[in-house]
Every structure is written in structure tokens, then in C-alpha cells.
TrEMBL record:
PANTHER family: BLR2505 PROTEIN. It comes from Pontibacter akesuensis. Residues 10-107 form the SnoaL-like domain. InterPro entries: NTF2-like_dom_sf, SnoaL-like. Gene3D superfamilies: 3.10.450.50. This is SnoaL-like domain-containing protein. Signal peptide: none annotated.
Amino acid sequence: MVEYNKAILEKANEAITEGDNEGFLSFCTDDTEWTFVGDQTLRGKEAVRRYMATAYIEPPKFMVENLISEGDFVTALGKIRLKNSDGKMADYSYCDVWRFRDGKMAELKAFVIKTD
């Protein structure tokens, strides 16, 4: 199951980088909950869909440095580059801790720091 969860996260991230938000969301539970530590919490797939529509003005670019899995959890450490609301690219370092349930991403706890 550990390797299966890693593969699911890799496929989901691939969908995002291709601009396929709905493809990404197909890997999430309907009641998925995303917590951006120190910022906001999104509850449910529709809230995540709305967030993605504004946060991913164009597909983000990921560089995963480490992907660590144990039990129902997969942790991704890396860098992400996003176009922000003023149209400029911004660089971030992140640590995402995903909890899986029944083969889908049920919960995210994200630690994100702007680096540029």
C-alpha cells in the first residue's frame, strides 16, 4: 500500500503540472481537507476546486526532492514555482503531508514558505 500511495500522489501531481485540475481532484476523497499551516483550511473537494482555480493561474512547476511514505501517509518535500495574482512567478519551498484513505488523498497538511 505504501508504494501504491506514492504512485497515486505522483500521478495526481502530474495532472496538476499538465493543467488538469479535475484529473488531480479525481485522486481526492469528496471530503478531502487541506490545511495550509498558518493560513487557511479547505474542506471538501469543491473548496479545493475553487482554490485551485485561483492559485494555479497557470500550471505550477514542481521539483520533488524527497517522497517518503509510511502507512497511510506520504510526505513530499520540494520546491514549487507558481504564477501569483500579479502575473509574476514566485518560488516556494514546501513540505506536504498527505493522509490516504481507501486509495485516495483524504487530508493534506501543507507547510509552504516563499523563497524569492
